[in-house]
Amino acid sequence: MIRFLILAGYFELMMYLQVSGKLNQFINVHYSYLAILSMILSFVLAMVQLVLWVKADGKKEDSVEHSHEEGIEHEHGLKKRHQRVIAYILLALPVIVGTFFPVVSLDTTIVQAKGFQFPISKESVGDPQMQTQYLQPNTSMYYNKTEYQKQMDKLMKKYDKSGILAVTEENYLEIMELIYNYPSEFIGRKISFDGFIYHAKQDQKEDDFVFRFGIIHCVADSGVFGLRIHLPAGSSFKNDQWVHIEGVIQSNFYQPLKRELPVVQTMKTSTITAPKNQYVYRSF
Hints:
By secondary structure, this protein is of the alpha/beta class.
């Protein structure tokens, strides 16, 4: 009965996330088919558990008598009560988290609370798959060194063209990864992209960035990615204001991080409406 309720609860949760459009805040949308498959599988298994439960309930008396006659030699699985309780809690954890923990859209308050480091946060320790990333999307952890270089070379050929480097929701993360990996290759290149303003305050100085929150595989490796910008004199934007930026990529030393960072010398800025889905995702 408990297994049926857990499986049915998982199916209903996944169905809700699909219908409400909130699934994209948990996983890369390119892997949404896996969520659909898991939803179908959970439904099938829930039906199996329901049938087994109905049959077992109908033969309860026979089952009890049989268990007394056979003894414990035919018992399978977890025999102790606390083991079963722990197992059921672990199985139900996705349902509990998805049901009772609110989905919160990320904004600059997250960046302000933690600050940002380059290329990863100071808090990121242990499993490299769980590192929170900042500024530069880094997919090298998902490849060996040779294969990663092949992927970067392939992407460089894709964007090694003249004209404006047009950054869209579909290619946002891969272009940002290239710019940070090969900054000299993009110096002098015109670029256009969208994102939200973040003012990074250091002592008496304030630097401007345009960011987007992105998900590489799932929310565990999500991060804030984007570029430092030099706004025209007289320009004024608030944190979280969504803007469209057009400018030229340059490179300047950024004292707070003690390293060279690509920076966009803006030629045109305009405010835009925040997109319905504010996340971007990495394609593989």
